[in-house]
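Predict the 3D structure for this chain.
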Amino acid sequence: MQLFGRISKSLLLWAASLVLFSCEEPNWDFDPYSDNLGPGYSAFGFYSEGVKYINAVFEESYLFSVSHEIQMNWNRCIEDGEAGIFMKIDIFEKEDCMWEDKEGNHIGLGPYVLLHLPLEKISLGKEITVENPNNAINLRLHAAGEENWYRNTITSRPFKKLTVIFTDVSKDQICGTFNAEIEVENLQQNTTINLKNGVFFLRADRRYGTYKSWLEDSCRTVNW
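Done. Predicted structure below.
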């Protein structure tokens, strides 16, 4: 009986320590602008009209823990004999940032950004202009007078201008900054939407895919 009691007590202590350890939040997050960005995480973000857009993160809770999945895919590729990287990022904004067109429709950014960046003939810290017509961002349009906000019509637009500065290119990670412009006709005022102070951190938790599948991704639509 005493042996059984000691075993039961040990099991309870082990279970309690497991719960405390599993529930302890790590001292990092998934925001690319945070000083506590996890050192092994990929991340992506930019600002537009003062609103911060970052990579979405899927969270799933378990009995003793919480798992997080960063909603961005990236991989290296060789196209036309030159090395590069391609990305698909599901972006998320904590505030509403909407533009209005001349018909009274509301236009927002997202949900996806598609980028291909060259790795050939680049120098760290030097700005380059990327001209790839397949680089694009989704725009969502909410029709004037439509009450249900989930009935957005999605389209994709190429970048009018995209400049990139690589800050680190190694086996373990590829990091840099960027700025971009999108041309959107029929807006009430300025027809250019700016993406400013963009950052990206591409690390070992990438998912695998092909450049061909990136080109043929179903999020590339022209609905309006």
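DSSP finds two helices and 14 strands in the chain.
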